[in-house]
Amino acid sequence: MTQDPTSERVATRLFVEEDLRAGLALGLDRERAHFLRSVLRLAPGAALALFNGRDGEWLGRLDAVGKGWASLVVEAPRRPQVREPDLWLAFAPIKRARIDFVAEKASELGCSLLQPVLTRFTAVERVNVQRLAANAREAAEQCERLSVPQVREPLALDRLLGDWEALNPPGATGVGRLLVMADEGGAHDRSLPPLAEAIRAAAPRAPEGRWALLIGPEGGFAEPERELLAGLPFVVRGTLGPRLLRADTAAIAGLALLQSEVGDWR
Fold first, then answer.
1. Locate the Ribosomal RNA small subunit methyltransferase E PUA-like domain: which residues (predicted)?
2. Rounded Cα–Cα distance for residues 174 and 206 (Å)
Protein backbone atom coordinates (compact mmCIF):
# COMPACT_ATOMS: atom_id res chain seq x y z
CA MET A 1 0.00 0.00 0.00
CA THR A 2 1.34 3.44 -0.96
CA GLN A 3 1.79 5.81 1.97
CA ASP A 4 -0.38 8.92 2.04
CA PRO A 5 1.94 11.82 1.00
CA THR A 6 0.19 14.16 3.43
CA SER A 7 1.04 11.99 6.42
CA GLU A 8 4.59 10.92 5.59
CA ARG A 9 7.12 12.57 7.87
CA VAL A 10 9.59 14.78 6.02
CA ALA A 11 13.16 15.61 6.98
CA THR A 12 12.93 19.27 5.94
CA ARG A 13 11.12 21.74 3.66
CA LEU A 14 12.76 23.39 0.66
CA PHE A 15 11.70 26.31 -1.51
CA VAL A 16 12.39 25.73 -5.22
CA GLU A 17 11.92 27.96 -8.25
CA GLU A 18 10.74 25.25 -10.65
CA ASP A 19 7.13 24.31 -11.36
CA LEU A 20 6.18 21.25 -9.33
CA ARG A 21 4.58 18.17 -10.85
CA ALA A 22 4.74 14.44 -10.28
CA GLY A 23 7.83 12.76 -11.71
CA LEU A 24 9.88 15.95 -12.10
CA ALA A 25 13.62 15.61 -11.35
CA LEU A 26 15.34 18.59 -9.71
CA GLY A 27 18.97 19.43 -9.07
CA LEU A 28 19.97 21.51 -6.06
CA ASP A 29 22.64 24.20 -5.78
CA ARG A 30 25.86 23.52 -3.90
CA GLU A 31 24.76 25.27 -0.70
CA ARG A 32 21.55 23.32 -0.25
CA ALA A 33 23.13 20.08 -1.36
CA HIS A 34 25.72 20.61 1.42
CA PHE A 35 22.89 21.27 3.88
CA LEU A 36 21.15 17.98 3.06
CA ARG A 37 24.33 15.89 2.94
CA SER A 38 26.56 17.35 5.64
CA VAL A 39 24.19 19.10 8.06
CA LEU A 40 21.09 16.90 8.00
CA ARG A 41 23.12 13.85 6.87
CA LEU A 42 20.30 12.58 4.68
CA ALA A 43 20.63 9.50 2.54
CA PRO A 44 18.90 8.73 -0.78
CA GLY A 45 15.25 7.95 -0.18
CA ALA A 46 14.73 10.66 2.46
CA ALA A 47 11.38 12.44 2.20
CA LEU A 48 11.28 16.22 1.72
CA ALA A 49 8.52 18.81 1.38
CA LEU A 50 8.88 21.14 -1.62
CA PHE A 51 7.06 24.41 -2.40
CA ASN A 52 7.44 27.26 -4.89
CA GLY A 53 4.73 29.75 -3.93
CA ARG A 54 2.50 28.69 -6.84
CA ASP A 55 1.79 24.97 -6.81
CA GLY A 56 1.23 24.21 -3.14
CA GLU A 57 3.42 21.79 -1.20
CA TRP A 58 4.66 18.53 -2.71
CA LEU A 59 6.33 15.42 -1.39
CA GLY A 60 9.81 15.01 -2.81
CA ARG A 61 12.40 12.27 -2.45
CA LEU A 62 16.17 12.63 -2.27
CA ASP A 63 17.27 10.61 -5.29
CA ALA A 64 21.04 10.92 -5.00
CA VAL A 65 23.52 13.11 -3.14
CA GLY A 66 27.25 13.76 -3.38
CA LYS A 67 29.82 16.38 -2.52
CA GLY A 68 28.34 19.67 -3.75
CA TRP A 69 25.36 18.19 -5.59
CA ALA A 70 22.01 16.52 -4.94
CA SER A 71 19.05 15.45 -7.03
CA LEU A 72 15.39 15.15 -6.03
CA VAL A 73 12.32 13.57 -7.52
CA VAL A 74 8.87 15.15 -7.04
CA GLU A 75 6.29 12.55 -6.10
CA ALA A 76 2.83 13.78 -5.05
CA PRO A 77 0.97 16.85 -3.71
CA ARG A 78 0.72 17.34 0.06
CA ARG A 79 -1.12 20.67 0.41
CA PRO A 80 -2.87 22.92 -2.13
CA GLN A 81 -1.78 26.51 -2.63
CA VAL A 82 -3.84 28.93 -0.52
CA ARG A 83 -4.31 32.68 -0.62
CA GLU A 84 -1.94 34.37 1.81
CA PRO A 85 -2.01 37.92 3.22
CA ASP A 86 -0.99 40.70 0.82
CA LEU A 87 1.04 42.41 3.53
CA TRP A 88 4.11 44.56 2.89
CA LEU A 89 6.76 45.73 5.33
CA ALA A 90 8.57 48.97 4.48
CA PHE A 91 11.37 49.55 6.97
CA ALA A 92 14.48 51.66 7.46
CA PRO A 93 17.53 49.37 7.41
CA ILE A 94 19.26 48.71 10.73
CA LYS A 95 22.49 46.94 11.72
CA ARG A 96 23.24 43.53 10.29
CA ALA A 97 22.15 41.07 12.98
CA ARG A 98 18.93 42.96 13.64
CA ILE A 99 18.01 43.48 9.99
CA ASP A 100 18.43 39.73 9.50
CA PHE A 101 16.10 39.27 12.48
CA VAL A 102 13.51 41.58 10.87
CA ALA A 103 13.59 39.63 7.59
CA GLU A 104 13.21 36.32 9.41
CA LYS A 105 10.33 37.40 11.64
CA ALA A 106 8.53 39.29 8.87
CA SER A 107 8.53 36.07 6.85
CA GLU A 108 7.19 34.11 9.82
CA LEU A 109 4.49 36.76 10.33
CA GLY A 110 3.23 36.39 6.77
CA CYS A 111 4.69 39.35 4.88
CA SER A 112 4.52 39.10 1.11
CA LEU A 113 7.10 41.81 0.39
CA LEU A 114 10.01 43.47 2.22
CA GLN A 115 10.95 46.99 1.12
CA PRO A 116 14.02 48.65 2.70
CA VAL A 117 13.43 52.42 2.88
CA LEU A 118 16.11 55.10 3.19
CA THR A 119 15.07 58.01 5.41
CA ARG A 120 16.89 61.13 6.56
CA PHE A 121 18.10 59.46 9.78
CA THR A 122 18.79 55.99 8.35
CA ALA A 123 22.25 55.02 9.62
CA VAL A 124 22.75 52.03 7.30
CA GLU A 125 23.42 52.92 3.67
CA ARG A 126 24.15 49.50 2.13
CA VAL A 127 21.68 46.63 2.26
CA ASN A 128 22.59 43.07 1.30
CA VAL A 129 19.33 42.18 -0.43
CA GLN A 130 20.51 38.66 -1.28
CA ARG A 131 21.22 37.90 2.39
CA LEU A 132 17.81 39.27 3.44
CA ALA A 133 16.14 37.13 0.79
CA ALA A 134 17.99 34.05 2.05
CA ASN A 135 16.87 34.76 5.63
CA ALA A 136 13.28 35.22 4.48
CA ARG A 137 13.40 31.99 2.47
CA GLU A 138 14.82 29.95 5.34
CA ALA A 139 12.16 31.30 7.70
CA ALA A 140 9.42 30.42 5.20
CA GLU A 141 10.79 26.88 4.92
CA GLN A 142 10.74 26.46 8.69
CA CYS A 143 7.34 28.05 9.47
CA GLU A 144 5.43 25.96 6.88
CA ARG A 145 4.07 28.85 4.84
CA LEU A 146 3.60 28.18 1.14
CA SER A 147 5.37 31.23 -0.28
CA VAL A 148 8.50 33.32 0.27
CA PRO A 149 8.42 37.11 0.62
CA GLN A 150 9.82 39.18 -2.22
CA VAL A 151 12.73 41.41 -1.12
CA ARG A 152 13.22 44.63 -3.07
CA GLU A 153 16.18 46.94 -3.47
CA PRO A 154 16.18 49.95 -1.12
CA LEU A 155 14.24 53.07 -2.08
CA ALA A 156 14.37 56.60 -0.70
CA LEU A 157 11.24 57.38 1.33
CA ASP A 158 10.17 60.26 -0.92
CA ARG A 159 10.55 58.03 -3.99
CA LEU A 160 8.49 55.27 -2.40
CA LEU A 161 5.72 57.67 -1.40
CA GLY A 162 5.77 59.43 -4.77
CA ASP A 163 5.40 56.12 -6.60
CA TRP A 164 2.96 54.60 -4.10
CA GLU A 165 -0.24 54.91 -6.11
CA ALA A 166 1.53 53.70 -9.27
CA LEU A 167 2.88 50.69 -7.36
CA ASN A 168 -0.52 50.06 -5.76
CA PRO A 169 -3.27 50.97 -8.24
CA PRO A 170 -6.86 50.91 -6.99
CA GLY A 171 -8.50 47.51 -7.04
CA ALA A 172 -12.12 46.59 -7.70
CA THR A 173 -13.26 48.74 -4.79
CA GLY A 174 -11.40 51.82 -6.02
CA VAL A 175 -8.93 51.74 -3.10
CA GLY A 176 -5.20 51.08 -3.31
CA ARG A 177 -2.93 49.70 -0.62
CA LEU A 178 -3.05 51.49 2.74
CA LEU A 179 0.25 52.33 4.44
CA VAL A 180 0.18 52.02 8.22
CA MET A 181 2.73 54.28 9.87
CA ALA A 182 3.97 53.30 13.31
CA ASP A 183 4.64 56.89 14.41
CA GLU A 184 7.19 56.97 17.23
CA GLY A 185 6.21 60.61 17.75
CA GLY A 186 2.93 59.25 19.03
CA ALA A 187 4.59 58.50 22.35
CA HIS A 188 4.28 62.25 23.00
CA ASP A 189 1.34 63.07 20.70
CA ARG A 190 -2.01 62.50 22.37
CA SER A 191 -3.87 63.22 19.13
CA LEU A 192 -2.71 59.92 17.62
CA PRO A 193 -4.79 56.79 18.30
CA PRO A 194 -3.29 53.44 19.30
CA LEU A 195 -2.14 51.63 16.17
CA ALA A 196 -4.66 48.79 16.59
CA GLU A 197 -7.49 51.31 16.82
CA ALA A 198 -6.23 53.17 13.74
CA ILE A 199 -6.07 49.91 11.75
CA ARG A 200 -9.56 48.93 12.85
CA ALA A 201 -10.98 52.31 11.83
CA ALA A 202 -9.29 52.15 8.42
CA ALA A 203 -10.26 48.53 7.67
CA PRO A 204 -13.46 49.43 5.73
CA ARG A 205 -11.27 51.39 3.30
CA ALA A 206 -9.24 48.28 2.44
CA PRO A 207 -11.80 45.51 1.82
CA GLU A 208 -9.38 43.70 -0.49
CA GLY A 209 -6.88 43.28 2.35
CA ARG A 210 -3.98 45.20 0.80
CA TRP A 211 -1.86 46.67 3.60
CA ALA A 212 1.68 47.81 4.30
CA LEU A 213 3.49 48.74 7.50
CA LEU A 214 6.06 51.54 7.62
CA ILE A 215 8.74 51.46 10.32
CA GLY A 216 11.25 54.29 10.66
CA PRO A 217 14.93 54.27 11.67
CA GLU A 218 16.36 54.18 15.18
CA GLY A 219 16.54 57.99 15.16
CA GLY A 220 12.90 58.29 14.16
CA PHE A 221 11.40 60.12 11.20
CA ALA A 222 12.54 63.68 10.58
CA GLU A 223 9.79 66.22 11.17
CA PRO A 224 9.41 67.03 7.43
CA GLU A 225 8.97 63.29 6.78
CA ARG A 226 6.28 63.05 9.46
CA GLU A 227 4.50 66.05 7.98
CA LEU A 228 4.65 64.55 4.49
CA LEU A 229 3.26 61.23 5.70
CA ALA A 230 0.51 62.90 7.72
CA GLY A 231 -0.78 64.63 4.59
CA LEU A 232 -1.09 61.56 2.34
CA PRO A 233 -4.56 60.01 1.90
CA PHE A 234 -3.30 56.42 1.86
CA VAL A 235 -1.37 56.73 5.16
CA VAL A 236 -2.88 55.49 8.43
CA ARG A 237 -1.04 56.80 11.49
CA GLY A 238 -1.04 55.38 14.99
CA THR A 239 1.15 54.85 18.01
CA LEU A 240 2.65 51.70 19.50
CA GLY A 241 2.33 53.10 23.00
CA PRO A 242 4.18 55.35 25.43
CA ARG A 243 7.58 53.65 25.17
CA LEU A 244 10.06 54.24 22.35
CA LEU A 245 10.70 50.88 20.69
CA ARG A 246 13.70 49.65 18.76
CA ALA A 247 12.98 49.43 15.04
CA ASP A 248 12.99 45.62 15.00
CA THR A 249 10.62 45.48 17.99
CA ALA A 250 8.29 47.99 16.34
CA ALA A 251 8.22 45.96 13.12
CA ILE A 252 7.19 42.79 14.93
CA ALA A 253 4.60 44.57 17.09
CA GLY A 254 3.08 46.36 14.10
CA LEU A 255 2.89 43.21 11.96
CA ALA A 256 1.27 41.31 14.82
CA LEU A 257 -1.38 44.03 15.14
CA LEU A 258 -2.09 43.99 11.41
CA GLN A 259 -2.41 40.21 11.32
CA SER A 260 -4.68 40.17 14.36
CA GLU A 261 -6.91 43.03 13.17
CA VAL A 262 -7.15 42.51 9.39
CA GLY A 263 -4.96 39.51 8.52
CA ASP A 264 -5.07 35.74 8.86
CA TRP A 265 -4.87 35.60 12.66
CA ARG A 266 -8.57 36.33 12.95
1. 28-68
2. 9
